[in-house]
Amino acid sequence: MAATALKPLIAVCQLTSTPDKEQNFTSCSRLVREAAQRGACVVFLPEAFDFIGSSKQETLSLAESLEGDLIMRYAGLARECGVWLSLGGFHERGEDWASTQRVYNCHLLLDATGHVVATYRKIHLCDVELQGRVSMKESNFTNPGPEIVPPVSTPAGKVGLAICYDLRFPEISLALTQKGAEILTYPSAFTVTTGSAHWEVLLRARAIETQCYVVAAAQTGKNHERRTSYGHAMVVDPWGSVIAQCQEGPGLCYAEIDLAYLHCIRQEMPVCTHRRTDLYGRVTVLREPPLP
I need a surface site. Which of 25, 28, 113, 149 has the fewest CB within 10 A? Predict the structure, then answer.
């Protein structure tokens, strides 16, 4: 499958990140180079592509700033391969690191020259306690992001950035669509418990209600002794059909983005014009990043 002028090709990665940052970079680099050779114009990596720590202390010690070595290496990889990179969940030591000792869960979008064109910091933190099954409190070591980032024009279309647990909140997908998104991306690290029950259902729901392509890179397999991820990275089209999905284990899946098809669906079923905002209001973006 190769990209065409009307149907650009994207690649979606499935990884098993560990606390070993160097090993993770090697794995990601191999997938990005493979995707570039296949003709992908945008490559999507999952949440925690940099690492998954086995404890709060390890996570904080391994985190870096956006100016650190790791992001510089990914910028070089984007330049080398001539592709855009969606780096979907970087443990960022922000400007407030010294005072808070907490990170941001940061989704970066790099263009084919390695330039950072957008940064979105996860606004919904995953604090979940499913008795005997899942215990997670992201807010113990993560600051929530302050804003929704407007969609970014890429070679594949206008991409709206989100991360993992954001998938459970349709408001962000509706807000991004209202701002012009054609592709919504949810790089994730779902657990097996939540993923087997909700992953595909939520992704297809977000695609159907927004009439967008939904791209979901994913963590898979055993990340460390206490963590196993669900996998099933996939792409859903604006009709809600799963058009690409990774098999078990690390790897790639590919999909063509057909914006003519997207606009046809929106024209034939114009749900955005049927909303009764006079009765239940309109989802709007109240805070956006300042203009550069």
Answer: 113
pLDDT for the residue 284 = 77
Catalytic residue among 41, 81, 92, 122: 122
Annotation says 222 is catalytic = no
How far apart CA 83 and CA 205 sit, in angstroms, is 29
Q: What residues does each domain of the chain span?
A: 9-280
Catalytic residue among 13, 28, 41, 47: 47
Is 272 annotated as catalytic?
no
What does the pLDDT look like over 197-216, one tens digit per residue?
A: 999 999 999 999 999 999 99
pLDDT in tens, 36-72: 999 999 999 999 999 999 999 999 999 999 999 999 9
The yes-or-no answer on residue 164 being catalytic is yes
Catalytically annotated residue among 164, 212, 246, 253: 164
